């Protein structure tokens, strides 16, 4: 995972905790990672091997494209040599207004692809001894200035380790609730699911479905089965961009690195059976897409797209309903995660929400504090304000400003 040695460093002698710590490049850890992830506190497609490996392959170069990011991946083993934790970190060189900072980040966060519920892998209940075993290795490393871990699973293993380091006064730890991530628990049948919705929702969904399937001649095609993965990604990019541009947004598929990553990821997940990706044809032509991943009984809905000419048909609502039915009846999935975002359409489907978490760790001493301050003030003005007053206060201020703007606009009209 780094530009340094390609061989796995031998484990250090066990410390007082009975655990040994090993530094390793991420690509060497497939077997350990695949064994540990299903046994860890946080288990999802974004902490799985396929996603982590693909992310590092595509984003191991720094954002400025000139400096390789340095891996800091730690494997913690018990006395029998079994992995009990893998903590995948890296050092990201970042220019600030006061100098170049070396920011310690969690793998998966820090570029154009920042998924939800990232974490270290750790056997539940072992976070405290793992954190104690890691402390001399992590905080004895002078190669990073401050840490920013983000889009973490709230209350996950890395969060628990940070609490141990904070209590030991190894770093000043600041926490911030980040993004709401709505989700649906899926029952044993689609009839049960519909029965739990309110009458208006049921009637509306059934009406949309009858009208669309009767009048638009829709056909569902699963990418990786009915369509080639590359062809499916071409259509997704086109349909998602059309959706974004119709609402005045740029869309991530304009970014080459975003496209390259998702094409590689989709191909790998198709091989492992975790790609869950549909293209909807309308009268024989591609009209909408629903791109996501199915991992251990949970579906993660990542992107949708559709041609603007069908906006009045509420294709997104229709497609979500059909995907829910397929997940329940065909895949026996237990949950559908709509991932982060405050989009109103998500809350038409559910009131259940999880949150991601961000953690900042500032090391003792002036250098870490100064460079962290420089990183904060080097952001755009809205982000600087959010950093200073906190996300909740910032969101309240933004909502109040938007309400005032609407009142002014209404009065002017």
Which fold name fills CATH's third level, the topology of the largest domain? Aminopeptidase
Percent of residues in helices: 25-40%
C-alpha-based Rg, rounded: 23 Å
Number of helices: 13
The major sheet is characterized as: 13 strands, mixed
Mean pLDDT: 88
Assign an overall shape.
Answer: globular
What's the CATH H-level superfamily name of the largest domain?
Answer: Gcn5-related N-acetyltransferase (GNAT)
Protein described:
The protein has two domains: 183 residues, Gcn5-related N-acetyltransferase (GNAT) (Aminopeptidase, 3-Layer(aba) Sandwich), CATH 3.40.630.30; 147 residues, Aminopeptidase (3-Layer(aba) Sandwich), CATH 3.40.630.30. The chain starts with 19 loop residues before the first strand and ends with a helix. The protein is globular, with a radius of gyration of 23 Å. Strand 9 and strand 10 form a beta hairpin. 39% of the residues lie in helices and 25% in strands. Strands 1, 2, 3, 4, 5, 6, 7, 8, 9, 10, 11, 12 and 13 form a 13-stranded mixed β-sheet that branches. It has 413 residues and is an alpha+beta fold. Helix 6 packs across helix 9, helix 7 crosses helix 8 and helix 12 packs across helix 13.
What are the defining features of this structure?
single chain; 413 residues; alpha+beta; Aminopeptidase; 2 domains; 13-stranded mixed β-sheet; 13 helices; 13 strands; 25% strand; disordered N terminus
List the helices and strands and how they pair.
Blueprint: E1 20-23, H1 30-36, H2 49-59, E2 70-77, E3 83-96, E4 99-106, E5 121-122, H3 127-139, E6 146-153, H4 157-167, E7 172-185, H5 190-195, H6 199-215, E8 218-222, H7 229-246, H8 256-272, E9 275-282, E10 285-295, E11 298-306, H9 315-329, E12 335-337, H10 346-349, E13 353-362, H11 366-377, H12 381-389, H13 391-412
Parallel strand pairs: 4-6, 11-12
Antiparallel strand pairs: 1-2, 2-3, 3-4, 3-5, 6-13, 7-12, 7-13, 8-9, 9-10, 10-11
Helix pairs in contact: 2-8, 3-4, 6-9, 7-8, 12-13
């Amino acid at each position: 995972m780094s530009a340094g040695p390609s061989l796995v460093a031998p484990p250090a002698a066990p410390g007082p905790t009975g655990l040994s710590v090993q530094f390793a490049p991420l690509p060497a850890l497939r077997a350990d990672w695949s064994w540990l992830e299903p046994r860890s506190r946080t288990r999802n497609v974004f902490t799985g091997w396929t996603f982590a490996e693909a992310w590092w392959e595509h984003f191991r170069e720094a954002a400025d494209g000139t400096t390789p990011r340095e891996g800091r991946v730690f494997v913690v083993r018990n006395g029998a040599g079994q992995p009990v934790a893998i903590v995948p970190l890296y050092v990201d060189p970042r220019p600030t207004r006061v100098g170049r900072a070396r920011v310690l980040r969690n793998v998966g966060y820090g570029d154009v692809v920042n998924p939800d519920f990232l974490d270290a892998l750790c056997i539940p209940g072992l976070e405290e001894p793992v954190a104690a075993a890691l402390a001399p290795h992590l905080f004895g490393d002078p190669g990073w200035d401050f840490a920013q871990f983000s889009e973490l699973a709230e209350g996950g293993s890395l969060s628990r380790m940070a609490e141990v380091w904070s209590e030991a006064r190894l770093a000043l730890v600041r926490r911030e609730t980040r993004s709401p991530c709505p989700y649906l628990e899926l029952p044993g049948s689609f009839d049960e699911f519909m029965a739990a919705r309110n009458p208006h929702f049921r009637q509306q969904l059934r009406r949309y479905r009858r009208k669309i399937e009767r009048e638009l001649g829709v056909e569902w095609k699963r990418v990786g089965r009915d369509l080639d993965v590359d062809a499916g990604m071409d259509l997704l990019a086109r349909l998602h961009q059309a959706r974004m541009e119709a609402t005045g947004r740029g869309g991530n598929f304009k970014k080459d690195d975003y496209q390259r990553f998702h094409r590689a990821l989709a191909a790998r997940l198709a091989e492992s059976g975790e790609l869950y990706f549909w293209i909807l044809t309308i009268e024989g032509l591609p009209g909408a897409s629903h791109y996501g991943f199915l991992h251990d009984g949970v579906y993660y809905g990542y992107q949708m797209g559709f041609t603007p000419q069908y906006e009045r048909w509420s294709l997104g609502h229709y497609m979500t309903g059909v995907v829910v039915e397929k997940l329940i009846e065909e895949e026996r999935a237990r949950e559908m995660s709509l991932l982060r975002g405050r989009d109103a359409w998500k809350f038409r489907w559910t009131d259940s929400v999880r949150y991601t978490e961000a953690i900042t760790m500032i090391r003792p001493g002036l250098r870490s504090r100064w460079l962290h301050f420089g990183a904060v003030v080097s952001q755009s003005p809205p982000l600087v304000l959010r950093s200073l007053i906190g996300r909740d206060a910032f969101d309240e201020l933004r909502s109040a400003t938007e309400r005032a703007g609407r009142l002014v606009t209404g009065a002017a009209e």
